[in-house]
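[Q] Does anyone have a clean structure-token version of this?
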Amino acid sequence: MAKKQKVKPNWANPQTTAENEVLPKYLKWAWTSRGLSLAVNVILIMQLTYYCTDMLGMKAALVGALLLASKLFDGVTDIVVGFIIDKTHTKWGKARPYEICIIFVWLFTILMFSTPNFGTVGKAIFIFIMYTLINSVCTTFLNGGDAVYLSRSIRSESNRVSIMSFNGGLIMLFSIVIGMLIPQLIAGLGATKIGWTIIAAILGIPLALIGILRFVFVKEVITDNMEAQEEQKSEAIPIKLGLQCIFKNKYIWILAGMTLVVQLCTNIGSAVNTYYFKYIMGDIGLATLVSMGSMITPLVMLVFPALSRKFGTVNILRAGAVFGVVGYAIRIIGGTNLVTLVVGSLIASVSVLPVSMMISIYLIDTMDYGEWKTGTRVEGMIGAVNSFCSKLGSGIASGAVGLIMGLAGYNGNLEVQSASATASIVALFNYVPLILMVVLLVLAIAYKLDKELPRIKEELAKKRATNN
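[A] Here you go.
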């Protein structure tokens, strides 16, 4: 029998088509590097409310108000960043240049967890500025360009699904490890302000270097002619028209709604996690044990391509929401029982994977739908809408935890909290996520783009062939 000949990677060749694209093996690792870095940053920032209340002595309600106020900037910066990305044309491409922002994400994070003793007002201003720079500026560029970067770097849809599945699995695995590590770091170093600076530096310095690897190794594979066509097309799209196209694209709003819900659910859980294990379970270290149960979830991402081919990506969205409802219901029924807490958390963790880890795939589909619906292809601004909802969910989560606990009477200076304060912690940890999973299921049922997509792509292909 003749030995099967290996096909050489042709990814960097401008003449490569989606049908015959072969990727180098290192590419999936390089692509994952920045997402991994940013995911860990999000996990750490979810401890900001705890840092502010228990280390800086700030009121929980004040912290919540600051984080929510910061989100007022996001509505403006996301649209502006999307417009900038659509207009960007450099030798590195359209979205790739903004990957450098991951360095500044970690720089500002380390500074934020090193807040000087300025007094209450000074601390509030400093936290507000750092948090806004991280989320409203740096993260906006990173998330806003992610789907654009993927669509211009990887031609084949099957390769995109494969890379995003690997990306999601590895990020989830690493996030779980970091999720187990952070409670131990907090228990060991988090009793002092300087300890939090050390925690931020331990994570931030290496992850900033890891995060920049995507920029270094993953280029936008696009020829000069294609670039010229894109530039001509981009110049013909004023921001007003771009906004009109977005508002006519119903699926980006459904998808953005799912992103908002997932971010709310994930980040409320992360923000209240330390409080729950400290005051309800009585041991912060137990959070590590519960996180260990989630080690199985990356396996789901590894089989995502096969599941996607068999059941379709939208059905996986809906199944994930059902898992979320079941998982949080188990946690509520079990209360403080450690077994039901681990099992429920494991099941619930699967619910957010399709949206949080495969979002770029869905965004590219909405770009195709938008072009078919309006006759104008908008990329950066579509990514910006989803980025805005992602950061809005993160900000509301952090702010809501602080505001609700503050209104319930939480006081970080007390060893034992009031009944109303502990009740608010339990509600944020279990009941609020359950409600959010029900909302996610409703949105997933309303997202029916998969049924329309084959016809849309066929018509777009004919239209492009005619125009050429």
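[Q] Thanks! Anything notable?
[A] The CA atoms of residues 379 and 420 lie 47 Å apart.
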